[in-house]
Amino acid sequence: MGCFFSKKSKRKSPEKEDLTPTTSNAVPLGNSAEEAPKQYSWDKREKVDPKDYMLTGLKDVTVGRLPGKLNGQQFVIQECENCSIYVLDHSATITIDDCVNCRIVLGPVKGSVFFRDCKDIKCVVACQQFRTRDCKKMDVFLCCATQPIIESSTGMKFGCFQYFYPELGFHFKDAGLSIFNNNWSNIHDFTPVSGENNWSLLPEASEVQDFLPVPDGESEFKSVRISTDASRSIVPLTKGGRRKDSEESCLFVFFAGEYATANTRKMIDQAIAKGFVLIQTKQVSMRPEDAKRVFQNEAEGLVELIKQGPVVALELNGDGVVEACKNIANEAFGGIKFFVSDNKNTSSRDVDNFFNFADMQMGL
Known about the structure:
The chain is about 15% helix and about 25% strand. It is an alpha/beta fold.
């Protein structure tokens, strides 16, 4: 099934060899009736039942795993039909095979999510790598740290991840994923067909609730406070590869610090409240020598800040966005070091410099 599970080691009892010195009354080693057998770390592991880490051959049911049930293990979903599946925990990898007409929510996956031979799927997915093969008609609300790949698949539609449950932020951290690194719209079709489009983006107004309703009150998931409201989503809602409404964009960068994530969310909320659009976000480490290439004339004062850890960058878009972002920053983040584009004549260059650098760093 592609899963691995640890098993207890079996050790043979020591041979009854007389190691007693000829001039002593010592008990032969390994034969003390009072001495407990030595315990090793692998002896203490809990037994893993493969059935706990797979869903197979199900039909017309609501199933899945509650927070805390997977704890980073691999998981398999196969041969399910007309099921609502909620895997609300972090995991190592997940494979989904031969499923039809299912609604699937996958908590953060440290490695890959691989759909094979699936049809009519609606899903919410957060992962390091996303791939499909031989799939048809999938609607995917995606957060993916790398470039999503489809292969021999048709009718694929993608939107930005929109989901919340109380443990989700911790699950992102446990899976080693950043909520700010989302390449949901940057799809690579491994098997393109001339004159045809195997994938497209969902309409911008698409809401998860219209595709994957929250679990009903009779299911085991009723105790989990799930929200599909985009404003509550752990992952910021971005416009991605859709055409920008304005020719004016602004680069805003927060440097590593105790409240960097909270400040970033605050900046996004205030900018959106003023009618601006979040195009993309990135969280990436930088070296001092990268500063000159990315920040150019502002680089000298930023080198020490870059050394503190990964930076978080936003591209915000809309007429008048540069001046608006500067005003928001000065009012809301007076005591915090940040970078914001200085004027609209150079702001597009700022955006290109940073995000081209970030994409190169991430291998995109």
